[in-house]
Amino acid sequence: MLVVGITGTLGAGKGTVVEMLKEKGFVHYSARDYIRKRVQAMGLKPDRDTFTMVANAAREKEGGDFIAKGLLEQANKDGKNCIIESIRNVKEVEYLKKHCNFVLLCVDADIKIRYSRIIKRDSETDNVDFDTFVADEQREMSPTDENKQNLGLVIRMADYTIDNSKDLDNLKQQVDKIYSCLPLRHRLTWDEYFLEVVKTVAKRATCDRGRSGCVIVKDKQILVTGYVGSPTGLPHCDDVGHLFKKTINEEGEISTHCVRTVHAEQNAICQAAKRGIALEGATLYCTMTPCRVCAMMIINCGIKRVVCLNKYHSGQESEEMFNQAGIQLDFVSEEVVKYDHQ
After folding, report:
1. Which of 7, 158, 234, 279 is the most buried if burial means most Cβ atoms within 10 Å?
2. How far is the C-alpha of 67 from the C-alpha of 65, rounded, in Å?
3. In the sheet where 82-85 sits, what is the strand order?
């Protein structure tokens, strides 16, 4: 999957470039629409200042890359080449470059031409005079707060720049030329490669409460794998059903766990111990946040990085322990996995 980020100045024609790429098969995700939903939910006036205020407040609370995380999660579910429009924060670019096959495209044009365009389109955020238009743009170009929009820096990070000061035919020629250079075939990164192996290993799991897999890697070589399954020689959930135990949580709530199986991470670590394989300095890839017991074992094995496909709803303790132990913890998706009765 290729993600094309679209940034650029107001009225430059970003939407037109998006439509041209959609005709070539790209799926469209809009940062502007992502914020619009928040503005509407808050009952605020949908003008440019409000959009900026709400977005900056959310960046302050959730991080400068919160829009990129949300939209990339949606894109990953579709798995198609896509466009993420209206990228305005450096952290958004950095997050996308790290987590996907990403190209940033900037669209610009002469400021007077751009102003005449926004007056003609007369949208909810465009009803301003020229001086206000210029002042708003200058304010967004170089703020001092890293969590706010910083259009100037983002534009300078672009892989390609389109000057849309001429006619539509000229714009189309530029888009076609850039399209011909895009890396539409994506070679898997090492993280993506090993996570695909995790998904395959998980298919061997024998408890349908959570068919989890684990792969432990060092120097780009797989050391051991593991999946959820009963101890050797004992019956599996898929054959005889679950072995449930109830637990009373600190809040007084009762949760139900299947205790028939050994967790994927534990099985992988047991395999390493059985075969005399040292895990010091390795990276562990898994389906979701390891539980508390798995986390303690991971720490004591000397593993230095953990990469999870998803978050586990009771994974906060593990996250805290990894942080205290200096272990890098990365999530591919912010989606939270929760089982029935837990």
Report:
1. 7
2. 6
3. 27-30, 82-85, 2-8, 101-108, 160-163
Q: Are 89 and 59 contacting, i.e. CB atoms less than 8 angstroms apart?
A: yes
Decide: 216 and 224 in contact? Cβ < 8 Å. Answer: yes
pLDDT in tens, 259-302: 889 999 999 999 999 999 999 999 999 999 999 999 999 999 99
Beta-ladder partners of 255 = 247
Cβ within 8 Å of residue 272, ≥6 positions away? 216, 223, 224, 278, 279, 301
Q: Are 260 and 208 in contact (CB under 8 A)?
A: no
Cβ(299)–Cβ(170) under 8 Å?
no
What DSSP element (H or E) covers 130? helix 130-141
Sequence-separated (6 or more) residues with CB below 8 Å from residue 240:
none
How far is 327 from 69, CA to CA, in rounded Å? 22
pLDDT band of residue 104 (cuts 50, 70, 90) is: very high
Cα(153)–Cα(165) distance, rounded to whole angstroms? 21
Residue type, 6: I
DSSP state for residue 122 in the 8-state scheme: -
Cβ neighbours around 252 below 10 Å, total? 6
Number of H helices, E strands in the chain: 14, 13
Phi-psi region of 186 (alpha: psi -120 to 50; beta: other; left: phi over 0): beta
What are the beta bridge partners of residue 162?
107
